[in-house]
Amino acid sequence: MLRVSDGPDKGQTFVLDASTPQRMLAGTSASCQICLTDPSVSRRHAAFDMIDRRLRLADLGSSNGTFVNGIGIVEVFLDGGEFVRMGQTTFHVQMKEAESAATISDRTTFGRVVGASDEMRRLYPLCEKLAQSDVPVLIEGETGCGKEVLAESLHELGPRASGPFIVFDCMAAPPSLLESALFGHEKGAYTGAVTSRAGVFEQAHRGTLLIDEIGDLDISLQPKLLRALQRSEVQRIGGTKVTKVDVRVLAATRRNLDEEVQAGRFRDDLYFRLNVARIELPPLRRRRGDVRLLAQTFWDTLGGKGRPIPAELLARLEAYAWPGNVRELYNTIARHLALGELAGDQIGDGLRRTALAEDEERGAQAGDFIDEVVAKALPLPEARQEIMEEFERRYLEHALELHGGNVTRAAAAAGIARRYFHLLRARHAKPGT
After folding, report:
1. CA-based, 20 to 30 A from 412: which of 1, 6, 344, 397?
2. Which residues contact 5 (CB under 8 A, 6 or more apart)?
3. What is the pTM of this model?
4. Can you list the positions of beta strands (E) in 263-388?
5. How distant, in Å, are the alpha carbons of 15, 216, 282, 321 from that of 118?
6. Those residues with Cβ within 8 angstroms of residue 60's Cβ, 6 or more apart along the chain or in another chain
7. Residue 67, beta-bridge partner list
8. CA nearest neighbour of 265 among 230, 228, 213, 227
């Protein structure tokens, strides 16, 4: 229990237990579960969560800092009895026995999302409920932690699964082209508009639209996006017709949108429109035990099934902090399966060079190409990049061949989102194809 013992909100009490699906944010933003009126507290000041029946407190880069018994902290575990100060507000931490044991999901996956850690299993019941609803969901998390995969899973396990799943990346095009990508344009609307084109809202009709990296959307486009969300209608650039759309909107961001709102870079009305429900995906370094599970999953789907992951490699994978999260782990497994000892030390000081056995046929094919690259006497970074690009090209070709050219099934078997699969294909496509 967190009891406010001093400050404008004195007397309020907040209860946390191990069944709380994600961190409880404390601050003055309406998106915080512990919402305070103290003007000296930041919009998103700190976060509380339960780990093995212990309360963890982390400062979220607040302007005034977070203090436990008068000592400034970045992150700390609390045992009860402490006084936590944020701005002019003081909490008294009181531990009490739960009346019943907290329950969390016993599943280890949610659609395409894989994770058996308590941090992930606490999220699954929330994800199940949100999959069946039609409300906007804001998915927050660091780069590479699986936001797009979660969004696609929410779509595939919900009532709109038979409809399209469209991804709009706010960082994928210059601002001058984003409006057209969002809302579409009519022929002749601007120089180069030689044909009419539907925007992503029309493309996602009766399905789901994921707006990725919403925190990077140009401020000039935010009112137009808000209008489309409020009215469920769009108007193409250069057109007069208003088109009604039936779209479930999900948004993902690596940014702290409360800070973006405070800095004037993101509209608060758009933020509240998108933040009807919120999921905060934990970084891989906090997902205890999931590195082993994910490594085995990627190992099997990338061609290593039937061969165990070398124990030494697995131990080093579990010892590493994974700043690039799940995406970095996936790429690391792919490198080791493709290149063996030539994969090198790609995951920092936590891992060193490790040799893995290869299939004779694949090893011979890879070896021929590797020999050619080595013979060029390129600098190591350039040689490594050339080998990785060839591996990706061959892997994509093989995955598509195995699944009869079906991109959806190939991407699922590869353990990556369809959009990422398409991006890789486009990157490795030969000119004119």
Report:
1. 344
2. 83, 90, 91, 92
3. 0.73
4. 277-280
5. 19, 31, 11, 18
6. 25, 27, 42, 44, 45, 46, 47, 256
7. 72, 85
8. 213
